[in-house]
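S.,

Sequence below, as promised.
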Amino acid sequence: MKKCELLVPAGGEKQFIAAVENGADAVYMGGLLYNARMGADNFTADQIGKAVDYAHLRNVKVYVTMNTLLEDEELDSALGLAEILYEKGVDALIVQDLGLGELIRQRMPDFPLHLSTQATVYNREGLRAARELGYKRAVLARELSLEEIRDCSLPRIIETEVFVHGALCFCYSGQCQLSRFIGGRSGNKGSCAQPCRLSYSYNGAEGYPLSPKDLCLIDWMGELIEAGVSSLKIEGRMKSAEYVAVVTRIYRKYLDQYLLHGGYTVSEEDRQELTQIFNRGGFTAGYVREDPEEGLMSGILPKNQGVKVGYISNPAKGGLLADLKLSEPLEMGDVIEVHGRDLFSTKVTYLEELKGKNGLVRVGDMKAEVSPGDEVYRIVSFRLMKKAEESFKGISFDGEPISGKRKIPVDMTLKASCGEPAELTAVCCDADGKKISVRTVCEDVIPQQAINRATSEEEIEKQLSKTGKTPFAPGHIRILQRGQLFIPVSGINKLRRMALSDLAEAKKSTCRRTLPAADLKKAKEDDGYAAPRYFEFCFMSLKDFESADKEDLIEQAQKAGAGREKIKFLLPLRQMAENIMPLLLLEDDIRNMIVPYLSNVTAGAYDKWLQENLSAAAGMAGNFGGRMYVGNISWIKPFADEGIVVMGDYGLNITNREAEAVYKSLGMEGGSVKSLEIEERGCGSYPLMITEHAMKDDILTDRKGVRYIINFDSKNHKTIIRQANTTVDWKQAEVLWKQGKQRVRIYL
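The prediction came back faster than expected:
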């Protein structure tokens, strides 16, 4: 039987319990620091320890997110947190920063690491690099098609994890600078302000052009499993416990059906519940389908739109009540939203069926004026929320034994001999199928020769089966006794309680670890920082380069203090390869300034071109000094193996020297442009987002009048959103150069 993990989010204790009790195979959560959802409740180290115990007793794994970028001064603290999590038995860490990952690998080599989707892994080359660095699993970019997922997963390079439900980012994860640019809140550091959910003016209209619908792949699980995916991941560490309960329960139901029977059909009731608990104008299959653009964007509202239940027939007098024509039933306690002149939501506090009025109901209370025809949506179902709450109500991490409804089977064998202490062996399995066994002897429970009536095997089995509020359920029970014996019921119960307590402790302790002794080989202060200094002009297209006044740009760079030998023109690699002759005919002085660069994301057509033309592309780069910029982990080693001096572009998100050293180990030898997260070493129109969503070349304007340039590359199917500031601040550039910055870059 094929296996596939159901991985569920938890932003707090209630969400965690909801995930476990509704069928999660694994739960991912964040600590109070260094996770990409700092707005969630998150967990203290002590709470994480309790959560691990709760989960492991029920054969559920726990992963902790440490998936933000870290600066040099943060690494020691982050490593200290990782050490605590290691000792508490956390099953894996989800990491974005490769510098932190390397320190963890050195310090705790048996601590499994998962590479976050923030690292933008989308092909086999990226997976091979992750494997070389010691990662057990990679969370694939959400923009991949089913074919691309299959191409990554079936070779079993390392485990792959794929999002199947929840919010979609507009931008490739890890490549978004918009939140930081607008308000200083970095998504790569856990503080995304979600600017993609705001309204913009685009293509002559006001709306939400950057807000996708939520992902729902409930119908695609079988195909993803057959494609080799190891883990199906639900998004939602900012969501409620009820949301976690509903989504987990439904995905668990159909995943089990597929694993058992090889197929399933999702009921309309379950689809309705998924829609009701949270949707942004319906769902999308995202990029796994052949036509990802169809039905991808939410359009009207970037928040939960619930389920349409009818429309306003007519407002009642007084304005507090209104008559509704319903297409779906309403209940007291539901929360509805009226889409009228004034958008508002209200709790149903009055509900009356109007007899003889052709199915009309009167509802209150209205929070604003309504008009006939206004659509009404139920955004909270009282019945569904109550049903979801019942699955985790009254359950907590605290208490001995830890309370809960999810059970694992335990086999028990009782040995009893006259005059000797009774012995009970209890056996269960962990999440990986490994057996855990305890042998408990109770000196106070001594079977005696029966005088009047022996204790029957049925009586003994009945008492041993009373596992109560423990995390165990009775499995196979064997009774081995010599002769006709009498064992008090109280004694059997005591022995059972002791054995199950011993088993619970053994189960928890098997997952806890002791820190090994290890010497860290930290990168030195100058590691990676001795690369040549360049004053760079980065062109988004070859056409822009051809039309540019190159001598004027050179003159401006020289005024800033850069010698002519330090000036470089950065051009897109593929465009260069396809139009190389005019470049080769340039004067030697200009031609020697050219450095090719590879897009930070090459998923799709660009990847196929690279795989088919790698040697030719490298040879072309060799005509221009044999150096090039690479902004993704995937292509560092392949180009380095072709003899190219690889320099790291800003897409690698290097924020510390440990990460720099890691990329050097993969073949990056020419230095790097550090992440925009720590220092903007340039000016002009630099990229803020790169997305798979096709948009018309245009201007995007936010509510404050700030403008952004949209560029769509139809050949590679990528949209880049940039600053609209096309005026170069030459004084800033001069200051940066004179400060000794390794790279000063002008985006044109």
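Residues 534-685+725-747 form one domain.

Coffee later?
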